[in-house]
Amino acid sequence: MYRRRRPRSSEIAFSFDSFLDLVCNVVGVILRLILVAWVGARAYTGYFKPPETPGEPDDVAVAADATVPTTEAEKAALADANRRLAAARAALLEQLRRHEDLQSRRQDVQRQTTLLTTRADALKRQADAVEKEAGRAARECGQVELSLADVDRRCEAIEKELAELKKQPVHPNILHYQTPLARTFQSEELQFEIQDGRVCFLDVDALVREIKQGMRSKEEQLKTHWEVVDETSAVGAFKLRYRIARERGLIDSVTGTGVPDERSEFRYGLDRWEAVPLMARRGETVEEALAEGSQFRRIIDHLDPTQTAVTFWVYPESFAAYRQLRDHCLRRDLLVAGRPLPEGVPIASSRTGSASRGQ
């Protein structure tokens, strides 16, 4: 592509920027010269002798001659003036010293005033604290006096109640123990466990009832086994681990056959049960059991002495608790049996076991 060239101009074009640069440079040079001249004039320390004026030396000489005393009176006046000037100077110095002493004393007084003010504030705070403590002590004393008065009133009320109780006739509570001739239970029996000083109800009737309801389901297993072991569901704090056994015939008992004949007819029943506790800490303490509304009292206080007897399974550490619970049952004319158990032996019953005997 062909590019056209512009024609060159023979004249030099005027530049306004270049003109401004030139003016600024000239002004800067002038300012530097003025600054150098001013600094040099300030630094000059030469002697300058003013031009002489006709008649001036004679005037100065006359003035100097006028200040010099020539007579004795003038000398005495001058000496007196010097003495008064010295005395005034001494008095002025004394006044200055006293003024400085006063300033120092004023500063000391201000410092002491500040210290006293600070101490007064501290003493005021201490006084306020002491006053508050005194008020609190007075209130506590008032409360103590009220408490003592309340105690006195209660003592008087208790003395009056004791006096009224002494006036009432005495009805002795006679505890009738049964004769030491035990007899076998022939009625409904309720069983309780006494361990670690706590009494807990063992609902054997409900647990055995569950076993009897499920006994039919064990019949198929007993056709080929002599016994079946199972557990009940929980009732209260216990469940039963029981064994249902098939009756052995005379020949089976003698021969000791390992497997029964499944084609023969047989009878079966509950052979043994054992109480399994579900928790380590169960039941009520003796104090809780003998209180109104306790589980033990709700059971015992509604029993018919002619229809129900009570059996306590007692562990060695709980004989004292057994005696208190037995006495409560005897007051209600209930038939009570105590069956001791060695430590660690569970409550159990079997066909070959003994029946409870009460007094």
Mean pLDDT: 80
- What's the main sheet like? 5 strands, mixed
Contiguous helical run count: 9
Tell how many strands the DSSP assignment holds.
Answer: 11
Helix coverage percent of residues? 40-55%
In terms of quaternary structure, what is this? single chain
- Residue share in β-strands: 15-25%
List the secondary-structure elements in sequence, H or E: HHHEEEHHEEHEEHHEHEEE
What is the overall shape?
Answer: elongated
Task: Give the end-to-end Cα distance, rounded to a whole number of Å.
Answer: 142 Å
Low-confidence stretches: 55-66
Q: What class do helices, strands and sheet pairing give?
A: alpha+beta
Radius of gyration: 65 Å
Strand order of the largest sheet: 7-3-2-8-9
Quick summary of this structure?
With 359 residues, the chain is of the alpha+beta class. Among the domains are: 70-141; 183-253 and 260-358, no CATH class.
